[in-house]
Each structure stands twice: as C-alpha cells, then as structure tokens.
Amino acid sequence: MELFTNLGLGFSIALTPMNLLYCLAGVFLGTLIGVLPGLGPTATIAMLLPITFTLTPVSALIMLAGIYYGSQYGGSTTSILVNVPGEAASVVTALDGYQMARQGRAGVALTTAAVGSFFAGTVATIILALFAPPLAAVALKFGPAEFFSLMVLGLLAAIVLARGSLLHAAGMVVLGLVGTDVNSGIQRFTFGILRLADGIGFVVVAMGMFGLAEITRNLENEGDRSTVVNKVASLMPTREDWKRMIGPILRGTAIGSALGILPGSGSILGSFAAYAIEKKVSKNSKEFGKGAIEGVAAPESANNAGAQTSFIPMLTLGIPSNPVMALMIGAMIIQGIQPGPSVITEQPALFWGIIVSMWIGNLFLVILNLPMIGMWVRLVSIPYQLLFPAILVFCSIGVFSLNNTEFDIYVMAFFAVLGYIFVKLDCEPAPMLLAFILGPMMEEYMRRALLLSRGDPMVFFTRPISAALLALGALALIAASLPAMHKKREEAFRE
Amino acid sequence: MNPIARNAKDFWTGFIYLFVGSGALIISRDYDMGTAVKMGPAYFPILLSVLLMIIGIISVLRSFFKSGSPIGVVAWKGLVLIVASTLLFGMIVRGAGLIIALPLLVIVSASASARFSWKTSLAEAVGITVFCIVIFLKGLGVPLPILGSWFGN
C-alpha cells in the first residue's frame, strides 16, 4: 500500500526530536492564543512568520499548522469557563458549554470538547491523507485558464460564505484585487513613493486589519466579563454523557470536514452549521442553550475538523481558503517552496511530515488541555487591558523585522484604520485579504491564458474544467442571492 | 429621507468602493492598456476598478431604498491612541531606541483602556521591554538599538 509507505515517511519526519519540539511549541502557542480572547491565529501566525525564516521548511510549517488547529482547542476552554469565545470558531460552544459549567459540569464539557476535537482531528488527518494526492494529480493537468477559474471560484465562494451583505463582500474582494501589484514591468499605484515599488506585504495588511483593528474593536466595549468558573471538578463524563456525545461528534466531524475544504470558511462556518443542525436533529433539542452536551460536542468537533481539512486546497492546489492558509503559503514561499499541486510529488517529506504531525499534535493537545487544564484556567483571568499593549508590541516589532524598515509599521497603522472602518461598516476583512493574496496570481494566470488563446476571452468558457469551475461559482452566488436562501444564510450566522 | 441616516453602512461602503475604484481608474489611465493577447500593466486594474465602481454605485443606490442598521458606537479614543502609539513607535524606535520606544508604546496604547492604571502599565512596560530585548534583540537578532542614535550610538 502506497499510503502506508507515505505515512511511514511522514512518521519518520514528524517523530524527529526537532519536529516533535516544534509541533509541541505550535500546539502550545495555539492553545495559549486560543484561550486568550482577542488574539486569533491570523494575527499570531503573521507575528511569528519572521521567526520561521530560521527554521527548516518542515519544522516551520509543522509549527504554524499546530498554532491553527491548537487555537481551536484553546478557544473552547474560554467559551466554556468564561462565556467569552476565545476564538471566533468557539462562539457557539459558549451557548451550552458555559451553561454546563454553571451547573458544575465544566470538566465534563472540557472533556467532551477535547474528545470531540481529537476524534475530528484524527478523521480529518485521514481525509487529508486519502484525498489530497488524487486531487493534486488532477490539478497537475490544469492550465492557466483552469487556475484562473479556480481562483474565481474560490473568491466567489468566499463572497457567499462571508458574514453580512453579499454585495459588500463582493466589493471587498474586488478591492483586494485592485490593491495588488506585481511584476507588470512598470511600477503601478506607487503614488511616487519609492517604498511602495515592491508592493505591500500581505503580512503587514493582515496584522493591521486583524491584529490592530481587532484591538480597537474590543476597546469599544470593555464590559465586565462574566464570572469565571474557577473550579473544574470531575473531568469524567458519565455513561449517559458518552452515549449522548457520539452522534453529535460524528455529525460535527462530517460537517466540519466538508465545510473546511470550501474556500473562505475554514473552521468558523463548520461550527455554526454543526450546532444549527444538531439542534434540529437532536431528540434533546429542548435542552439546547441550557447546557446540552450535544451543543458542545458538535461544534467543537466541526471546528477542529474544518481547521485541518482547510489545508487540502492549500497543499494540493496552492490556493489559500482563508487568511491563515494564505499566511502558510507565504511561509512556504519564504522557504523557497513553490506552492501548488507539485508539492506532494516534489516535497513528499514535507507533505507527509505535516500530515502526520497534525495527528501527533492532536495527541499533544488532549494532554495539554485535560490534565493541564488548571494552568489555562489561570490564564483565562488575565485582564484585557494588560493583554492588548503586549499584542501591539509584538505586532510592531514583528512587522518591522519583516524587512527591517519602520515604513511597514506605518503601513500597518494605515490598515488598522481601514480595517476598523470596515468592521464598523459590517464588511468582513477576510475576503479582501484572500483577494489581495490571489490577485497577483490571478493576473498572471489571466495574462498567460489570454496569451495562449490569442486574446480570446472565451477560453475560460470553452475549456471544460474551467467552464465547470466558473459555473459552480456562479451557481453558488445565484443560490445565495435567492430570497429564500438569503434568509437561511442570515440565520446560519445569527445563532 | 437622508440616505446616510437611513442606511449609513450601505452608503459609506459604496462611497469607499466608488472612491477607490475611480481613483484606480484615473491612475491606471497613465499606464499601457495593451491588448488581450499581450495584457499591459493597465489591463487588469482597469477591468477591476470598473467592477468596483459598479458595486459601489449599486451600494449607494441601495442605501436610498433599503433601510439598514446604524453604525453604532465608535471607539474613537481607542482608535486614535492605538494608531498614534504605533506611529510614534515607528518614528522614534531608531532614534531613541527600544528602551524608550517600547515603554511609550505600552503606556500610550494602554491609556486607551477605561481600566488604565499607571501602576500596572508601568510594571508591564518594564516587563515587556526586558522580554523584547532578550527575545527579539539577543535571541532573534532583530537589528533594533537598545539605545538609539539620538544618544550618540
């Protein structure tokens, strides 16, 4: 079996002491930022990107991946104990998790979240190992037209899956594309500023729009945090609890895995959808919102599964499905690896090493999150007014160290203002950042496709795969703008 | 009825899209459009700026007909202090050095919080400055001075 040979290779890479250490460091940091509200994986990975320059590519990606899925575990702890989501994907976990904690069942809720996450993580790892190679093999046959259409599909999906108005999400995407600047031979949109000749780094944009703008948003309302549940009694669920969590974990894993692959979503949408569906199908639906164990098991399984399957488009097609994956692509490029379908064949050690490390990382996370829960409980009570100046310091030094220039700090401040304006206008920044990263690639593929077709734009519609991808995107957009679907979409995000 | 009052979010979002779109269009006119076979530097931006302007116009028009939710509280103090402290840090970090720039960044930004207290912020400033000098300067070799050029270094 080729799969076993490959997994064997993966284990031999992931189990080296160095990589185990970086995996542990990644999931530890991930849990930490997951537990701390107001600091997400996007800003953290952006901050740490300069540090990974010094690591080998495998170690760097293993650590960054660990931060992302680790943050999904940590986020649930804060949701359950403080009723404040530590992470965007843990918003729904707070609904029932906090109620369970108030009933003295915080330990059971934490165990449920950890067991669900571990199961989901294991399944998602297997899905990744099984489906990524064939997908990449198909993608190897893609020409420039197919890649262009695939990116259009990705952006259309990001529009459909964004929160708020479809029109505004579309605008954010085009705004991100306009802002791109590449090797077009001459300098564009530099306003005569020499520093802008190389374009604006997306890490700088990400830190401004996600790190700084988020701090400002949190300062709007510094209302009292709900009482922290400090006592975590028995971690062990009862026999009845075990029975009730099996179904939700299975369904949550399936929903999360499927939605995680979609562009523009990652782990967040999966957790919302899993909770909503569980509430519909569960025979205990009356208990939802009052401490139903299903309401913790389903979304926590879904967000972890989604966090891991969102690596599939990134590793097989070289296309990021969310800002975190975009940063991972940035990390690969920095390391001299060209992301795309050839990564699996040309860098098998990297690919399989990352996959196996995810499973090992999930194992670490169970240990980090259950026996060591006491440490995280103490961390939860760090007040925000101490936290945000520290975040600001790390963002500022991190952004400086990218190119060793203070100009990047000014650009970051500019995007902080822009990011906050968009937050106030209900425009999600994620689709814009995605477009900002895809823009240069799209322009390049469009140029090549049109060159090959002698300037005939019909090439995007006459090549079957390209046409199918575009049709799929158009269909999603039309479906989302139908009045009936429109209402459903709003409901899904409201919960 | 005043559209800004009726649907401020649609109006202003549309306004920004229209502003950026038309700006990009005007600037792009100075570049070479090229042809579809050989796309010039202006080809892609012009295509997109027109699209952005269309989206902007629809959004502005929609704000006249459909009411929306108000913009809500704006954290002016937070925004100004966060941005100002960041800019200040950028401006003085080389001249004054980390030992002055970092505490200023921490204290100015922390004063944005309603729960700001001098005592805790000063303690935090000291802690963060030491931590950053050890980790970023000594550990990771970020080329920033502890004491900057204004002090004759």
Produce the secondary structure layout.
The complex is a heterodimer of chains A (495) and B (153).
Chain A: H1 2-14, H2 17-35, H3 41-48, H4 57-82, H5 93-102, H6 106-139, H7 144-161, H8 166-178, H9 202-220, H10 239-261, H11 268-281, H12 294-309, H13 311-317, H14 323-334, H15 343-346, H16 348-369, H17 373-380, H18 384-403, H19 407-424, H20 429-452, H21 459-462, H22 464-481, H23 483-494
Chain B: H1 3-6, H2 8-28, H3 43-65, H4 76-96, H5 98-110, H6 118-139
Helix pairs in contact in B: 2-3, 4-5, 5-6
What does this protein structure show overall?
The complex is a heterodimer of chains A (495) and B (153). By secondary structure, chain A is an all-alpha fold. Chain A is built from 23 helices and no strands. In chain A, helix 3 (41-48) packs across helix 9 (202-220), helix 4 (57-82) runs parallel beside helix 16 (348-369) and helix 7 (144-161) packs across helix 8. The longest helix of chain A has 34 residues, at 106-139. The model of chain A has no long low-confidence stretch (mean pLDDT 83). Chain B is flat and about 55 Å long. Chain B is 68% helix and 0% strand. Chain B is mostly helical. The N and C termini of chain B lie far apart (63 Å). The mean pLDDT of chain B is 84. Chain B is built from 6 helices and no strands. Classes of the chains: A mainly alpha (495), B mainly alpha (153).
